[in-house]
# Entry
Amino acid sequence: MDIVRIKCKGIKPNYYQPENYILDNSVSWQKIGRTNIQELLNIHCAENKQFVFFNSDKYIDSEFIKTLNDEEKYSLTLISPEDVCIHVKRWPERQQITMSFIYNGYRYNFMPITDTEFENIYLKYQDGNYNYQDNCLLVISLGDIYEKDYEAL
# Structure
């Protein structure tokens, strides 16, 4: 895992993504080192919240987020899921790789995967459901507005 230094223009939170920063695209990212999962977990351990994002669904009602205090809001989380299953599905117009897992006793189904390296591995598989046997960590982000709700990506 690479450690990179990036230049930011500043912080630009909104009411549903308080961690947002604006990257300075005029400055290239600089690789300054490498790390492993254990060193990462020494800096930031996996979360242990009741839910991934406020409920057991993959969508969050935008009106609910508006009711939270600023200190309760977050849009990035690092979790250690259980019973992970990768779903490969192809249609004539597109293909999709999603993931289902259990977190704190709640099953989250068909969550979109945005890690292109991981996705490319499973795009080589036939349509189907594949149990992921290895322990894993997921960084999940609360996506942009999707009509009235938000989707965890």
Observations:
- The chain has one domain: 44-152.
